[in-house]
């Protein structure tokens, strides 16, 4: 297919140059946005009298048909074309002749491509947001079912204090809610129309940029034409927000992988979301979680690509910027793919509550509550801490737990103890009493669930 810029050249383009230069293989996915952007541009050109209204009408009608034909498969996108913009304009001119050649009046591919990526990514943000909301819903439901499921909470991967599995899940929910919020923030700054920036210096035609912004659903128009064509902050911001999504999914995956091990056995994944080994018949592997953890690397790489591509580019447009698309599309596709597998995996996993409870019974995770009991009797916390430490050492020596240590031993360490200490260190009570807002107590977790469900309405 011919280039749009043939006039000044005497020779044909080398095949190697076209292969290297062409972006059609990855920008063809923007065909719908490219055509819709052109329809809005042509409509404005007609409305402002920059081109004849009748010609604008024919361009709009034919662009609509081209869109339908690509969607139905009747029209195949030519993979030899330089890019999607060239292909669409070429097809329009093939159908409309002279009139088709008027479409690109007062426009450059530089502002056109800046528009197309924004339109595509706005849609992708909506899709990913829907996916994240799906995960929030699953987490809330699972947390609801497990708001009484006692498990050890960890620091340094050492058993620390009692929590519930519901409370643990709601921690991930809080991260995902922040991710959703961040994506909306990225979208807000992305929602600025660059069209009208021309190649770099705007145009002499009396464009109605606000009209185009209105037609395409943009909140505002870009303030400076140089920045309009060469800003890719929104790609970088999106890649950064998606990197954080992947950090969260990856941390969660790491825990799933541990919880599936015989060492933990806190959860069992559904057969439909696990894989086996070709040699070890007993194996049931958490491959989905491992792949999600691994794929986080791709998305961080995409962010690094975008930052590196942009950091040395003099104003305004440079061809380096064509590298934006593969990186940001890969980040978007990876996150969507991960969510698609991850959410149903969480939804269908079985929680092994008895194993969690057994793990909670070991490791002295009620030691803080034992110290708090002494504080309740008037002892300063630091002294209570020390006395409890001595009790824990005693238990370890005797192979006992705080629950099974006889009262005389308690009293020998501190005479403030009486038999009510056993109630104070009961794990169910330790959790139930943690009603501080944000804590693992049942009402507190219920409030977290209600707030999360409300946030995604
Ligand atoms: N394929 C190009 C890109 O993705 C479109 C813009 C081309 N502009 C130019 N001046 N060559 O960036």
Layout of strands and helices, then pairs:
Layout: H1 15-21, H2 24-27, H3 31-47, H4 53-72, H5 84-96, H6 109-145, E1 150-155, E2 158-164, H7 165-190, E3 192-193, H8 209-216, E4 220-221, H9 225-230, H10 233-260, E5 267-268, H11 287-310, H12 324-348, E6 350-351, H13 353-361, H14 367-376, H15 381-398, H16 407-413, H17 421-424, H18 427-432, H19 442-455
Parallel strand pairs: 3-4
Antiparallel strand pairs: 1-2, 5-6
Helix pairs in contact: 3-4, 3-6, 3-8, 4-5, 6-7, 6-12, 6-19, 7-10, 7-19, 10-11, 10-12, 11-12, 14-15
Bound molecules: arginine.
Architecture overview:
- By secondary structure, the protein is mainly alpha-helical.
- 62% of the residues lie in helices and 5% in strands.
- The chain contains 19 helices and 6 strands.
- The strands form 3 sheets. Strands 1-2 form a two-stranded antiparallel ribbon.
- A hairpin with a 2-residue loop joins strand 1 (150-155) and strand 2.
- The longest helix is centred in the first third of the chain and has 37 residues, at 109-145.
- The protein is elongated.
- The mean pLDDT is 96.
What labels would you give this structure?
single chain, 457 residues, mainly alpha, two-stranded antiparallel sheet, two-stranded parallel ribbon, 62% helix, binds arginine
> What is the total tally of β strands?
6
Major sheet: order of its strands? 1-2
Determine the structural class based on helices, strands and strand pairing: mainly alpha
**Biggest sheet architecture:** 2 strands, antiparallel
Order of helices and strands: HHHHHHEEHEHEHHEHHEHHHHHHH
Helical run tally: 19
Distance between the termini: 48 Å
């Amino acid at each position: 297919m011919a280039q749009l810029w043939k006039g000044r050249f005497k020779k044909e383009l080398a095949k190697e140059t076209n292969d290297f230069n062409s972006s059609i293989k990855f920008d063809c996915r923007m065909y719908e946005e490219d055509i819709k952007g052109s329809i809005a541009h042509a409509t404005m050109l007609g409305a402002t009298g920059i081109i004849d209204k009748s010609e604008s009408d024919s361009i709009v009608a034919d662009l609509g048909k081209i869109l339908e034909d690509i969607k139905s498969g009747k029209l195949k996108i030519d993979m030899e074309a330089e890019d999607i913009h060239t292909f669409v304009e070429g097809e329009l001119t093939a159908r409309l002749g002279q009139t088709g050649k008027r479409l690109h009046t007062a426009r450059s591919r530089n502002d056109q491509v800046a528009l197309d990526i924004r339109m595509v990514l706005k849609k992708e943000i909506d899709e990913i947001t829907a996916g994240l909301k799906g995960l929030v819903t699953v987490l809330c439901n699972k947390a609801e079912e497990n708001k009484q499921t006692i498990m050890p909470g960890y620091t340094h991967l050492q058993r620390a204090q009692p929590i519930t599995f519901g409370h643990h899940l709601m921690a991930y929910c809080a991260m995902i809610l922040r991710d959703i919020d961040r994506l909306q923030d990225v979208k807000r700054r992305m929602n600025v129309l660059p069209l009208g920036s021309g190649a770099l210096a705007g145009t002499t035609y009396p464009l109605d940029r606000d009209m185009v912004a209105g037609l395409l659903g943009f909140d505002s128009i870009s303030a400076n034409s140089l920045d309009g064509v060469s800003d890719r902050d929104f790609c970088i911001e999106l890649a950064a927000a998606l990197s954080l999504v992947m950090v969260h999914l990856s941390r969660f995956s790491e825990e799933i992988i541990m919880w599936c091990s015989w060492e933990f056995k806190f959860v069992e994944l559904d057969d439909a979301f696990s894989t086996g080994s070709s040699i070890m018949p007993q194996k049931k592997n958490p491959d989905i979680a491992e792949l999600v953890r691994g794929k986080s690397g791709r998305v961080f790489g995409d962010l690094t690509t975008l930052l590196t591509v942009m950091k040395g580019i003099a104003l305004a447009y440079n061809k380096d910027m064509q590298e934006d698309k593969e990186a940001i599309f890969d980040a978007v596709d990876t996150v969507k793919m991960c969510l698609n597998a991850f959410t149903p995996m969480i939804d269908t996993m079985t929680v092994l509550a008895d194993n969690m409870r057994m793990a909670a019974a070991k490791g002295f995770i009620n030691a803080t509550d034992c110290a708090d009991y002494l504080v309740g009797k008037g002892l300063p916390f630091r002294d209570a801490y020390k006395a409890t430490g001595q009790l824990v050492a005693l238990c370890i020596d005797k192979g006992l737990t705080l629950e099974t240590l006889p009262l005389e031993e308690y009293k020998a360490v501190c005479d403030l103890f009486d038999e009510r200490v056993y109630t104070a260190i009961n794990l169910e009570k330790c959790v139930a009493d943690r009603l501080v807002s944000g804590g693992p107590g049942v009402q507190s977790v219920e409030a977290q669930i209600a707030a999360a469900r409300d946030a995604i309405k």
